[in-house]
Amino acid sequence: MPVQRLFSFLGWPVTAGLLIAVLLLLLFPDLRQNSDTAPTSPSDISGNWGPVSYSDAVNKAAPSVVNIYTTKLVKRRYRYSDHPLYRHLFNNANTPQQVRMQSTLGSGVIVSKDGHILTNNHVISGADEIIVLLHDGRETAATLVGTDPDNDIAVLKIELENLTAITMGEPVKAQVGDVVLAIGNPFGVGQSVSLGIISATGRYGLRTNNEYENYIQTDAAINPGNSGGALIDARGNLLGISTAVLDETDSSAGISFAIPADSAMKSLEQIVQHGSVVRGWLGLDANQLSPEGMKRYGTAGIIVMAVLEDSPADRANLKPGDIITHINNQSVADARQGLFLVADITPGSEVNLRVVREGETLELVAIAGVRPSARTRT
């Protein structure tokens, strides 16, 4: 029959083609295009593939993120107790004042197996009791080791065994566009995870309580209760401590901020060793040179606006109008950079300053003092 003859005629060529195709796939596996081989975790990412799930990163970091509950006693005022006509009666009454408990919530990150936890200072500020709820359901009271209000960091300590410390990432290598996840306890609903990217690094000038603003900005949702929680990379490593949102309603609007993990750990190390954070200080006010100023003076740097009497800068003979170009042989581009450079210097150490004064380059040496806290500085 014609149809049978057609199949008989095509049979050998089709069979030979299939055999050749199989042989090519065996010899050249890169030719395979099978969606089933797509990587399922960030560690498998290669080429243009993206991860199907971030569950590996979350499972790695989540056991290190805790919920924090704080309580404090608040004296309750009677109605009319502040009224001018009745204040005298209430002030001289024998009736005891009513006291109520006020509770707040936040998050924290276990950073050592011996029980040290990083959180925000504003989460535990003024607390009479701090309770920590672990990912595995255990609950315990926490001790406040110390705080760094200028960096909005607090260090807690819990006495439990089998703790999972988070793996540290490298915030200095973080880039805009990197995927990040925020883990915390938003609105007290329980541990939750939100996804976003790094929107910017080195953010400052936000007028927060953090004097050493150097935020990682992200669009990952950070809501009330997330403060003190973890901002992790796509592999589950800690990049930052979630701390603030840029929204007057205190809810996430796609602009959130985290303190870089390396900065938070510097605060922790000093608090654990010394009970507080000690930063270097020179005692001067300086501004960045404008483009016109750089043309005028022929150099980049920061110009000294004022020198505090009997401060380390004063004793080093630094004068208003001097232009600081280098601190310990590191060029200074702006006043904020100079603040960070000096803050990292151990008090009592020498600080080498390269200064331009009236066109002449001078080498001055100051002895770093102890920077007063922003809460006590005038």
Please describe what this structure looks like:
By secondary structure, the protein is α+β, with helices and mostly antiparallel strands. It folds into three domains: 60-157, Thrombin, subunit H, CATH 2.40.10; 171-274, Trypsin-like serine proteases (Thrombin, subunit H, Beta Barrel), CATH 2.40.10.10; 280-370, PDZ domain (Pdz3 Domain, Roll), CATH 2.30.42. 20% of the residues lie in helices and 33% in strands. The protein has helices at residues 2-27, 55-61, 87-91, 121-124, 261-274, 291-297, 312-315, 335-343, and strands at 65-76, 98-110, 116-119, 129-133, 139-141, 143-148, 153-157, 179-184, 192-203, 215-218, 230-233, 238-245, 256-260, 280-281, 284-288, 302-307, 323-327, 330-331, 350-357, 360-367, 369-370. It has a seven-stranded antiparallel β-sheet with strand order 5-4-1-2-3-7-6. A hairpin with a 4-residue loop joins strand 6 and strand 7 (153-157). The longest helix has 26 residues, at 2-27. The radius of gyration is 30 Å and the shape is flat.
